[in-house]
Design a protein that fits this description.
By secondary structure, this protein is an alpha/beta fold. The chain has 19 helices and twelve strands. Helices cover 55% and strands 13% of the residues.
């Protein structure tokens, strides 16, 4: 046994508490990314992560306090820290094969396996987070030499732990995950905590510390095996061209046998952009953004389309189509994830000369632009990921102020085959700002396009402008207007209206997702 001086022992105790607080927050935030790459980052996922981690921490506080009273010595304390570090590093390595099974089940719409995998991964956090929760009450017990100083000691310990939590909050998201990925981020924090735990244990009992040196060796060996290969296997029949963990998403670009490339994010269920070397129009959501201006009163000619903006640019399918139809048209694209922009430029042909890309949140970025636009497109929603601040009356007023007199706002909104609550609430909200709103259902999808016009307009204008297109109009424009005209349906509204003060988007979306799953929606997708 060793006998470190009391001052050194106290300073190292504070370092241990700081490291424990830092690792706790880092594990929580990294957990969201670990799960988000397969299950997404909806409110349901976040609620499960935060709720269960709070339960584990609660158990840790209770167990740690009782443990400290029964064995109030530094050797036990540093053993707890070392084991907490080991299990923290073990989580992503064990979770990785489970998540691969879950990703495959997600692609096959196997709800039972997907839910089971989700629960299994969350259970993996029980041991490390509970042990991390033991650190604070145990450290207070060790530092408390005189009950008269109980308040001061407790305050110091919680302050140091919280300071560590601040570091653990920002460092993974802003620095480590974008640079080295989620699994390595877990391992970095686990390694730092383990170094503190082993050093502290060695100060008390060098032999006990030496007996635990197998831990970093095991983690290193497992990491070598686990980190080989992609985070997500590409969908069946696809080749993975690019994979990157950014601060916001797991970004993948895949290619099929016919040369079509697709941008996939996180769980990979939605195609966010599409590209082919010789084709521009794909009869999917993006083509409807070409049709929006032609809801204006006829004759509306292509030369009246002067400038556009896209919020949720992704990898540039909309901008590529607009540039083909209107060569050299000025375009402003706003995309929050720089990793998506890089993938678009490198793999998806997002190199249009008239395209200016702003990496920013959609609403903030739009408010930085000084131009007015013929068309502003919002392609930043996808159930269950709907940024509520891009759905409100106030936001749509900001958009309106950046439209020309005959400008249009076009929005891609998610739905199911039987649940149009989000679409109807969006239409209701838009009608508070715009005189006319038109509805188109994208064929063979769960997407509805809403077009809001600054001038009062009629849905029949679209067919009239299609018929009046000049002979030299681009064939992609003609085809896009034809598909759009065939996809029109009456605009229905609900009583729900979204504002900056109250926008119950999340509750609507969560309810839609749960109802979709409970009423056989998975079987519908599978067919």
């Amino acid at each position: 046994m060793n006998n470190p001086g009391p001052r050194l022992q106290q300073r190292f105790l504070y370092l241990a508490v700081f490291s424990g607080g830092m690792t706790t927050l880092a594990v929580e935030l990294s957990a969201s990314r670990l799960l988000g790459s397969t299950f997404g980052t909806s409110n349901i996922v976040w609620a499960n992560i935060i709720g269960l981690i709070l339960i584990y921490l609660t158990a840790g506080y209770f167990i740690g306090g009782r443990w400290a009273d029964r064995s109030p010595n530094y050797t036990t304390f540093y053993r707890i820290i070392t084991w907490a570090a080991f299990f923290s590093g073990l989580v992503p390595l064990v979770a990785r094969p489970i998540l691969r099974v879950a990703a495959s089940a997600f692609q096959d719409f196997d709800a039972a396996v997907t839910a089971g995998s989700f629960a299994s991964v969350l259970v993996l956090f029980a041991v490390p987070v509970t042990l991390l929760g033991c650190i604070s009450p145990f450290s207070i017990r060790l530092a408390l030499a005189d009950v008269k100083n109980a308040g001061s000691i407790s305050g110091h310990m919680y302050a140091v732990s919280t300071l560590g939590s601040i570091i653990g909050n920002f460092t993974p998201v802003l620095i480590l995950i974008p640079q080295i990925g989620t699994t390595r981020t877990f391992l970095v924090f686990a390694g730092l905590l383990m170094a503190v735990g082993l050093a502290g244990l060695a100060m008390q009992d060098r032999g006990a510390a030496l007996k635990l040196l197998w831990m970093p060796a095991v983690l290193a060996a497992l990491a070598v095996v686990s980190l080989s290969g992609p985070l997500h296997d590409p969908p069946s029949g696809m080749t993975l061209l690019h994979e990157d963990e950014t601060a916001y998403n797991l970004v993948q670009v895949v290619e099929d046998d016919e040369g079509y490339r697709y941008l996939l994010l996180n769980e990979g269920q939605g195609v966010h952009s599409q590209w082919h070397p010789s084709e521009i129009y794909y009869r999917r959501t993006w083509g409807f953004f070409l049709a929006g201006p032609y809801f204006n009163a006829p004759p509306y000619t292509p030369d009246r389309v002067e400038r556009i903006a896209v919020v949720g640019l992704a990898a540039g399918t909309i901008s590529r189509q607009y540039d083909a139809v209107y060569p050299g048209i000025p375009m402003d694209g706003i995309e929050i994830d720089p990793g998506i922009v890089e993938a678009g430029r490198a793999y998806m042909g997002m190199t249009q000369p008239g395209l200016h890309v702003m990496v920013a949140d959609g609403r903030f970025g739009l408010n930085q632009l000084d131009e007015t636009y013929t068309m502003i497109g919002i392609d930043a929603y996808r159930v269950p990921y709907v940024p509520w601040h891009l759905t409100t009356v106030e936001f749509f007023e900001e958009v309106r102020d950046r439209l020309t007199d005959d400008g249009v706002l076009i929005i891609n909104v998610g739905r199911t085959s039987s649940d149009r609550r989000l679409v109807e609430a969006m239409a209701r909200t838009l009608l508070d700002v715009y005189p006319s709103v038109h509805t188109m259902d994208v064929p063979d999808s769960y997407n509805t396009i809403l077009v809001a016009t600054r001038q009062p307009t009629n849905a029949h204008n679209l067919a009239a402008n299609l018929a009046a297109l000049p002979a030299g109009a681009h064939p992609v424009l003609r085809e896009a207007l034809t598909v759009a005209a065939d996809s029109l349906r009456p605009t229905a509204i609900s009583q729900t209206r979204f504002t900056d003060d109250r926008a119950p988007v999340e509750s609507i979306v969560d309810s839609m997702v749960i109802e979709f799953l409970l009423t056989g929606g998975i079987d519908e997708l599978d067919n």
